[in-house]
Amino acid sequence: MALTPDDVVHKEFQHVRFKDGFDPEEVDDYLDEIVVEWRKTIEENNELKAKLAAYESGENAPAAAAAPAAPAASGPVEATSATAGIIELAQRLHDEHVAEGEAKRKQLIEEAEAEVSRIRSEAEAKQREETARLERERNTLEGRITELREFERDYRGKLRALIEGQLRELDQKGSSSDATPVSAIGL
């Protein structure tokens, strides 16, 4: 089965999920460019075939009428030079299309590299912002931890002082109650 530009235009690819793939719009755009170039090439090919047919029919008829004794001698030489001209033209067209393709490839690569550079710089900027935000959050949390440690130290100190004061009072009451007889207390 011969592949035609319409086959390329109407070809649909399955979308892949959860895997790396190509941007469908970019693929479609590129295929559209291929189809345009392909149609140009087909049109040029048809024109060249028509010119060749006209040349062969036009050259063979006058040669046969002018020199009926030697049509075979001049026909192949002229046909060979015409064929060489057509081949040269086809080669030049081929070279032009290859050069255009290479230029387009180079342009696409440059655009892709620029896009990679842009995405990378955006990611690095985002990373710097996120790192700065996390650093600020860490500093805030460390400050809060320091405050809570100071609060704990003060609280423990006050609690210790309170308990020691209560113990001193108990000791003082215990030593003063030892000196008082039980009958004086009212028991």
Explain the overall architecture.
The chain is mostly helical and 187 residues long. The longest helix is centred in the C-terminal third of the chain and has 109 residues, at 71-179. Residues 61-74 have low confidence and may be disordered. The chain has helices at 5-10, 24-66, 71-179, 182-185. It is rod-shaped, with a radius of gyration of 49 Å. The chain starts with a helix and ends with a helix. Helix 2 (24-66) packs antiparallel against helix 3.
Low-confidence stretches are: 61-74
Write down the overall mean pLDDT. 80
Distance between the termini: 123 Å
Question: What spatial form do the alpha-carbon principal axes imply?
Answer: rod-shaped
Topology record:
Elements lengths: L4 H6 L13 H43 L4 H109 L2 H4 L2
Helix pairs in contact: 2-3
